[in-house]
Design brief:
The protein has no helices and eleven strands. Strands 2, 4, 5, 6, 9, 10 and 11 form a seven-stranded mixed beta sheet that branches. A hairpin with a 2-residue loop joins strand 9 and strand 10. The chain is globular and about 40 Å long. It starts with a strand and ends with a strand.
Length: 116
């Protein structure tokens, strides 16, 4: 079965950095685009970043462009999100996502809190 397990969240001061990772299993990882989403308290889940099969194409929501970088390692079945210059408004639970056959698969998420 498809499994996505996120890690790397934590508490960081504004301006700091974190690197999130997602370990994927149960499917042919290199055949799928991968996404990161986030959900802040009281808000809807929002898409953050996407990476293509080989990592050659990436896309970001406007609020994180120039600060976040998504990457993947198809030899290790992992996708990562490097987050720099973090802001309090980046505080959210971050989720790894893959869509296949019209089904969305999610991990349990990892909490990121940006606060002084």
């Amino acid at each position: 079965q498809v499994q996505l397990v996120e890690s790397g969240g934590g508490l960081v001061q504004p301006g700091g950095s974190l690197r999130l990772s997602c370990a994927a299993s149960g499917f042919t990882f290199s055949n799928y685009f991968m996404n990161w989403y986030r959900q802040a308290p009281g808000k809807e889940r929002e898409w953050v970043a996407r990476i293509s099969y080989t990592g050659g194409n990436t896309a970001y929501t406007d609020s994180v462009k120039g600060r976040f970088t998504i990457s993947r390692d198809n030899t290790k079945n992992t996708v990562s999100l490097q987050m720099n210059t973090l802001k309090p408004e980046d505080t959210a639970r971050y989720y790894c996502h893959v869509g296949m056959a019209l089904i969305d698969y999610w991990g349990r998420g990892t909490q990121v809190t940006v606060s002084s």
